[in-house]
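Hi Y.,

Following your request, here is the sequence exactly as I used it, all 285 residues.
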Amino acid sequence: MISFAKRNLKVYFRDKSSVFFSLLAVLIVLGLYILFLGDQLIKSVGDTVTGADRLMDSWIMAGILAVTPVSTTLGSFGAIVNDKAKRIIKDFRCSPIRSSSLAGGYILSSFAVGTIMSVFALVIIEIYFACKGYALLSALQLLQMLGTVLISVLVSSAMMYLVVALFTSQNAFATASTIIGTLIGFITGIYLPIGSTDKAVQYIIEFFPISHAASIFRKILMADPMSESFKNVPDNVLTDFKLDMGVEYNAFDHTFTTVESIIYMIAAAAVFYVIGILITRKKNK
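Below is the corresponding structure, written out as C-alpha coordinates. Let me know if you'd prefer a different format.
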Protein backbone atom coordinates (compact mmCIF):
# COMPACT_ATOMS: atom_id res chain seq x y z
CA MET A 1 0.00 0.00 0.00
CA ILE A 2 2.84 2.40 0.87
CA SER A 3 4.59 1.70 -2.43
CA PHE A 4 1.36 2.27 -4.35
CA ALA A 5 0.80 5.53 -2.47
CA LYS A 6 4.33 6.66 -3.43
CA ARG A 7 3.52 5.87 -7.06
CA ASN A 8 0.41 8.05 -6.89
CA LEU A 9 2.36 10.90 -5.30
CA LYS A 10 4.91 10.80 -8.13
CA VAL A 11 2.13 10.77 -10.72
CA TYR A 12 0.48 13.81 -9.13
CA PHE A 13 3.55 16.01 -8.66
CA ARG A 14 5.00 15.05 -12.04
CA ASP A 15 1.96 16.53 -13.78
CA LYS A 16 2.47 20.30 -13.30
CA SER A 17 -0.88 21.17 -14.89
CA SER A 18 -2.67 18.86 -12.45
CA VAL A 19 -0.97 20.59 -9.51
CA PHE A 20 -1.88 24.00 -10.92
CA PHE A 21 -5.53 23.19 -11.53
CA SER A 22 -5.88 21.55 -8.13
CA LEU A 23 -4.90 24.93 -6.68
CA LEU A 24 -7.33 26.78 -8.95
CA ALA A 25 -9.97 27.21 -6.23
CA VAL A 26 -7.33 28.76 -3.96
CA LEU A 27 -6.19 31.12 -6.70
CA ILE A 28 -9.80 32.13 -7.42
CA VAL A 29 -10.44 33.00 -3.77
CA LEU A 30 -7.18 34.94 -3.48
CA GLY A 31 -7.78 36.77 -6.77
CA LEU A 32 -11.32 37.76 -5.86
CA TYR A 33 -10.18 39.02 -2.47
CA ILE A 34 -7.35 41.11 -3.91
CA LEU A 35 -9.37 42.53 -6.83
CA PHE A 36 -12.89 42.88 -5.44
CA LEU A 37 -13.75 41.55 -2.00
CA GLY A 38 -10.88 42.95 0.08
CA ASP A 39 -11.75 46.63 -0.02
CA GLN A 40 -15.45 45.92 0.37
CA LEU A 41 -14.95 43.72 3.44
CA ILE A 42 -12.52 46.14 5.04
CA LYS A 43 -14.90 49.05 4.48
CA SER A 44 -17.77 47.04 5.96
CA VAL A 45 -16.00 46.84 9.34
CA GLY A 46 -13.59 49.77 9.10
CA ASP A 47 -15.96 52.34 10.58
CA THR A 48 -16.59 50.40 13.78
CA VAL A 49 -13.31 48.65 14.57
CA THR A 50 -9.58 49.33 14.42
CA GLY A 51 -7.08 47.20 12.52
CA ALA A 52 -9.63 46.14 9.89
CA ASP A 53 -6.89 45.29 7.36
CA ARG A 54 -5.29 42.65 9.58
CA LEU A 55 -8.67 41.38 10.72
CA MET A 56 -10.00 40.73 7.21
CA ASP A 57 -6.67 39.47 5.87
CA SER A 58 -6.77 36.84 8.62
CA TRP A 59 -10.38 36.01 7.71
CA ILE A 60 -9.68 35.37 4.02
CA MET A 61 -6.47 33.44 4.73
CA ALA A 62 -8.42 31.12 7.02
CA GLY A 63 -10.82 30.52 4.14
CA ILE A 64 -7.95 29.74 1.79
CA LEU A 65 -6.61 27.16 4.26
CA ALA A 66 -10.04 25.52 4.37
CA VAL A 67 -10.33 25.36 0.56
CA THR A 68 -6.80 24.08 -0.13
CA PRO A 69 -7.37 20.50 1.18
CA VAL A 70 -10.53 20.14 -0.94
CA SER A 71 -8.99 21.15 -4.25
CA THR A 72 -5.67 19.35 -3.73
CA THR A 73 -7.13 16.03 -2.55
CA LEU A 74 -9.54 16.14 -5.48
CA GLY A 75 -6.63 16.73 -7.84
CA SER A 76 -4.74 13.82 -6.30
CA PHE A 77 -7.71 11.49 -6.73
CA GLY A 78 -7.55 12.24 -10.44
CA ALA A 79 -5.11 9.31 -10.53
CA ILE A 80 -8.05 6.97 -9.90
CA VAL A 81 -10.02 8.35 -12.84
CA ASN A 82 -6.92 8.27 -15.04
CA ASP A 83 -6.24 4.64 -14.11
CA LYS A 84 -9.87 3.72 -14.84
CA ALA A 85 -9.95 5.57 -18.16
CA LYS A 86 -6.70 3.96 -19.36
CA ARG A 87 -7.73 0.60 -17.89
CA ILE A 88 -4.55 0.55 -15.83
CA ILE A 89 -6.70 -0.35 -12.84
CA LYS A 90 -7.41 -3.75 -14.43
CA ASP A 91 -3.68 -4.51 -14.47
CA PHE A 92 -3.48 -3.66 -10.78
CA ARG A 93 -6.42 -5.92 -9.99
CA CYS A 94 -4.78 -8.81 -11.82
CA SER A 95 -1.64 -8.35 -9.76
CA PRO A 96 -1.11 -9.76 -6.24
CA ILE A 97 -2.05 -6.35 -4.77
CA ARG A 98 -5.23 -6.53 -2.70
CA SER A 99 -8.17 -4.30 -3.56
CA SER A 100 -8.01 -2.85 -0.05
CA SER A 101 -4.35 -1.96 -0.60
CA LEU A 102 -5.22 -0.22 -3.86
CA ALA A 103 -7.96 1.84 -2.20
CA GLY A 104 -5.70 2.53 0.77
CA GLY A 105 -2.89 3.66 -1.54
CA TYR A 106 -5.14 6.15 -3.31
CA ILE A 107 -6.50 7.49 -0.02
CA LEU A 108 -3.08 7.67 1.65
CA SER A 109 -1.52 9.53 -1.29
CA SER A 110 -4.45 11.94 -1.38
CA PHE A 111 -4.06 12.61 2.34
CA ALA A 112 -0.33 13.20 1.86
CA VAL A 113 -0.91 15.60 -1.04
CA GLY A 114 -3.55 17.54 0.89
CA THR A 115 -1.30 17.80 3.95
CA ILE A 116 1.78 18.87 1.98
CA MET A 117 -0.07 21.52 0.00
CA SER A 118 -1.96 22.82 3.06
CA VAL A 119 1.26 23.17 5.09
CA PHE A 120 2.79 24.94 2.09
CA ALA A 121 -0.20 27.32 2.04
CA LEU A 122 0.24 27.95 5.78
CA VAL A 123 3.91 28.84 5.24
CA ILE A 124 2.97 31.25 2.44
CA ILE A 125 0.36 32.87 4.70
CA GLU A 126 2.94 33.36 7.45
CA ILE A 127 5.29 34.96 4.92
CA TYR A 128 2.44 37.20 3.74
CA PHE A 129 1.69 38.26 7.32
CA ALA A 130 5.38 38.98 7.94
CA CYS A 131 5.61 41.12 4.78
CA LYS A 132 2.61 43.15 5.94
CA GLY A 133 4.11 43.65 9.38
CA TYR A 134 1.56 41.51 11.23
CA ALA A 135 2.49 39.43 14.27
CA LEU A 136 3.27 35.83 13.41
CA LEU A 137 1.49 32.87 14.98
CA SER A 138 2.78 31.58 18.30
CA ALA A 139 4.09 28.04 18.70
CA LEU A 140 0.80 26.95 20.29
CA GLN A 141 -1.22 28.54 17.50
CA LEU A 142 0.94 26.80 14.89
CA LEU A 143 0.32 23.45 16.57
CA GLN A 144 -3.41 24.18 16.61
CA MET A 145 -3.28 25.11 12.93
CA LEU A 146 -1.39 21.93 12.00
CA GLY A 147 -3.89 19.80 13.93
CA THR A 148 -6.77 21.50 12.16
CA VAL A 149 -5.00 21.00 8.82
CA LEU A 150 -4.82 17.24 9.42
CA ILE A 151 -8.52 17.02 10.30
CA SER A 152 -9.57 19.22 7.38
CA VAL A 153 -7.48 17.11 4.99
CA LEU A 154 -9.07 13.96 6.43
CA VAL A 155 -12.64 15.10 5.82
CA SER A 156 -11.76 16.67 2.45
CA SER A 157 -10.11 13.46 1.29
CA ALA A 158 -13.15 11.45 2.37
CA MET A 159 -15.57 13.74 0.54
CA MET A 160 -13.50 13.81 -2.65
CA TYR A 161 -13.06 10.02 -2.56
CA LEU A 162 -16.83 9.71 -2.60
CA VAL A 163 -17.05 12.17 -5.50
CA VAL A 164 -14.37 10.41 -7.54
CA ALA A 165 -15.98 7.01 -6.94
CA LEU A 166 -18.83 8.18 -9.19
CA PHE A 167 -16.62 8.91 -12.24
CA THR A 168 -14.85 6.82 -14.85
CA SER A 169 -14.47 9.50 -17.56
CA GLN A 170 -11.66 12.06 -17.45
CA ASN A 171 -13.85 14.68 -19.13
CA ALA A 172 -16.61 14.23 -16.55
CA PHE A 173 -14.05 14.41 -13.75
CA ALA A 174 -12.52 17.60 -15.19
CA THR A 175 -15.96 19.20 -15.40
CA ALA A 176 -16.80 18.16 -11.85
CA SER A 177 -13.46 19.53 -10.60
CA THR A 178 -14.18 22.90 -12.19
CA ILE A 179 -17.66 23.04 -10.66
CA ILE A 180 -16.43 22.03 -7.21
CA GLY A 181 -13.56 24.51 -7.38
CA THR A 182 -16.02 27.29 -8.19
CA LEU A 183 -18.71 26.37 -5.67
CA ILE A 184 -16.52 25.52 -2.69
CA GLY A 185 -15.92 29.19 -1.90
CA PHE A 186 -19.66 29.83 -1.68
CA ILE A 187 -20.48 26.69 0.31
CA THR A 188 -17.84 27.47 2.92
CA GLY A 189 -18.89 31.12 3.25
CA ILE A 190 -15.68 32.58 1.81
CA TYR A 191 -16.91 34.62 -1.15
CA LEU A 192 -19.80 35.98 0.90
CA PRO A 193 -19.86 36.08 4.72
CA ILE A 194 -22.54 33.79 6.09
CA GLY A 195 -24.37 36.77 7.60
CA SER A 196 -24.97 38.11 4.08
CA THR A 197 -26.90 35.02 2.96
CA ASP A 198 -30.47 33.93 3.65
CA LYS A 199 -31.37 31.37 6.31
CA ALA A 200 -31.56 28.35 4.00
CA VAL A 201 -28.06 29.00 2.65
CA GLN A 202 -26.78 29.56 6.18
CA TYR A 203 -27.93 26.09 7.18
CA ILE A 204 -26.11 24.58 4.18
CA ILE A 205 -22.91 26.37 5.16
CA GLU A 206 -23.24 25.52 8.85
CA PHE A 207 -23.64 21.80 8.21
CA PHE A 208 -21.08 21.50 5.40
CA PRO A 209 -18.10 19.77 7.08
CA ILE A 210 -15.40 21.90 5.45
CA SER A 211 -17.09 25.04 6.78
CA HIS A 212 -16.25 23.86 10.28
CA ALA A 213 -12.57 23.67 9.32
CA ALA A 214 -12.85 27.26 8.08
CA SER A 215 -14.46 28.24 11.38
CA ILE A 216 -11.62 26.73 13.43
CA PHE A 217 -8.97 28.32 11.22
CA ARG A 218 -10.72 31.68 11.69
CA LYS A 219 -10.83 31.27 15.47
CA ILE A 220 -7.07 30.71 15.53
CA LEU A 221 -5.94 33.26 12.93
CA MET A 222 -8.38 35.96 14.02
CA ALA A 223 -8.00 35.57 17.78
CA ASP A 224 -5.37 38.30 18.21
CA PRO A 225 -6.80 40.67 15.55
CA MET A 226 -10.28 40.42 17.09
CA SER A 227 -9.04 41.08 20.62
CA GLU A 228 -7.28 44.19 19.32
CA SER A 229 -10.05 45.41 17.00
CA PHE A 230 -12.92 44.91 19.44
CA LYS A 231 -11.26 45.81 22.75
CA ASN A 232 -13.30 49.01 23.08
CA VAL A 233 -16.49 47.60 21.60
CA PRO A 234 -19.46 46.02 23.48
CA ASP A 235 -19.39 42.22 23.70
CA ASN A 236 -22.60 41.85 21.70
CA VAL A 237 -20.96 43.59 18.72
CA LEU A 238 -18.12 41.05 18.77
CA THR A 239 -20.61 38.17 19.08
CA ASP A 240 -22.59 39.44 16.09
CA PHE A 241 -19.37 39.86 14.10
CA LYS A 242 -18.31 36.26 14.80
CA LEU A 243 -21.68 34.91 13.68
CA ASP A 244 -21.86 37.14 10.59
CA MET A 245 -18.33 36.22 9.45
CA GLY A 246 -18.54 32.50 10.19
CA VAL A 247 -16.02 32.53 13.02
CA GLU A 248 -18.73 30.73 14.99
CA TYR A 249 -21.80 28.87 13.73
CA ASN A 250 -25.17 28.99 15.44
CA ALA A 251 -27.76 26.55 14.14
CA PHE A 252 -31.12 26.03 15.82
CA ASP A 253 -30.02 28.27 18.70
CA HIS A 254 -26.92 26.16 19.34
CA THR A 255 -23.43 27.56 18.89
CA PHE A 256 -20.90 24.93 17.82
CA THR A 257 -17.81 24.66 20.00
CA THR A 258 -14.42 23.81 18.52
CA VAL A 259 -14.59 20.29 19.98
CA GLU A 260 -18.04 19.74 18.48
CA SER A 261 -16.79 20.92 15.09
CA ILE A 262 -13.85 18.49 15.26
CA ILE A 263 -16.11 15.56 16.21
CA TYR A 264 -18.53 16.51 13.43
CA MET A 265 -15.75 16.55 10.82
CA ILE A 266 -14.29 13.22 11.93
CA ALA A 267 -17.74 11.60 11.92
CA ALA A 268 -18.46 13.05 8.47
CA ALA A 269 -15.14 11.71 7.17
CA ALA A 270 -15.99 8.21 8.41
CA VAL A 271 -19.42 8.32 6.73
CA PHE A 272 -18.03 9.59 3.41
CA TYR A 273 -15.27 6.98 3.35
CA VAL A 274 -17.72 4.15 4.03
CA ILE A 275 -20.11 5.31 1.31
CA GLY A 276 -17.26 5.81 -1.16
CA ILE A 277 -15.84 2.33 -0.47
CA LEU A 278 -19.29 0.75 -0.84
CA ILE A 279 -19.83 2.48 -4.20
CA THR A 280 -16.39 1.39 -5.40
CA ARG A 281 -17.01 -2.23 -4.41
CA LYS A 282 -20.39 -2.24 -6.15
CA LYS A 283 -18.90 -0.90 -9.37
CA ASN A 284 -16.07 -3.44 -9.27
CA LYS A 285 -18.42 -6.42 -9.14
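Residues 7 and 109 are 8 Å apart (CA to CA).

Thanks again,
Q.
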